[in-house]
Amino acid sequence: MERIAVVTGASRGAGKGIALALGAAGATVYVTGRSTAAGDSRYGGTVAETVQLITDAGELGIAVAVDHADDQAVAALFGRIKQEHGKLDILVNNAADLNARTIDAGSFWEKPLEAVELLNVGLRSHFVASYYAAPLLIANGRGLIVNTGHYGAVCYFRGPVYGAQKAGADKMAADMAKELRPHNVAAVSIWMGALDTERARAYLASLPPESRPKAKRESTQFTGRVIAAL
């Protein structure tokens, strides 16, 4: 049976790896993100490039340009999925606004106020996507919502905005799970840990060789394989 999945913020990083892994597991993957052209981000990657990699592997990926700060655009995405498939199996909430120095070094008052946008695209956006996805998951009779989490939810990591976003995503998943359980739909938050992303590579390259962590970073596709197995 064909599985339909949505991975938000999948032009690069964890979202890209998750989308590739779900595609490899046979799902039709809707890949969303704001980066639609080369140069949109200093870390590279576009939704079209992610979809091309899925297609090259013989699976079906669908690129959809979505700004997850735009509720109407999100509603249109899930309206399209309803029209084309009438159901949804998996939603992975990964979109996050990390471009405003949110995770740069420095105290919260030293960063631009725009850093707080992570609580919009990164927390509120998870709720909005889940809001529109839930009826499709319920109509399917089974399904899964995944928020991509991090241990920064319970300890200091990159500052209060980052921690609040991750803690909020954990709590949101737990409470959604309670309300969705009677409909055979699950909601979880998966802590991904240290991943081998484009952002991480750029950061590590900026450090003196002697200061770079020796521990191996996990493949971005690992989380996607976990999700596919749930």
Percent range for β-strand residues: 5-15%
**Integer average pLDDT:** 89
Strand order of the largest sheet: 3-2-1-4-5-6
User: Do you know the CATH topology?
Assistant: Rossmann fold
Distance between the termini: 15 Å
| Shape-level CATH architecture | 3-Layer(aba) Sandwich
| Silhouette | globular
**CATH homologous superfamily - what is it?**
NAD(P)-binding Rossmann-like Domain
Number of domains: 1
The helix/strand series, from N terminus to C terminus, equals EHEHEHEHEHEHH
Radius of gyration equals 17 Å
**Helical amount among residues, as a percent range?**
40-55%
Report the uncertain regions: none
CATH class group: Alpha Beta
Describe it for me?
By secondary structure, the chain is α/β, with parallel strands linked by helices. It contains seven helices and six strands, in the order βαβαβαβαβαβαα. Helix 5 (160-180) links the parallel strand 5 (143-149) and strand 6 (185-191). Helix 1 runs parallel beside helix 2. The model has no long low-confidence stretch (mean pLDDT 89).
Kindly list the characteristics that best describe this protein.
Rossmann fold; globular; 41% helix; 230 residues; 7 helices; six-stranded parallel sheet; alpha/beta
List the helices and strands and how they pair.
Elements lengths: L3 E4 L5 H12 L3 E6 L13 H10 L4 E5 L5 H14 L5 E4 L26 H21 L2 E7 L10 H21 L4 E7 L6 H8 L15 H9 L1
Parallel strand pairs: 1-2, 1-4, 2-3, 4-5, 5-6
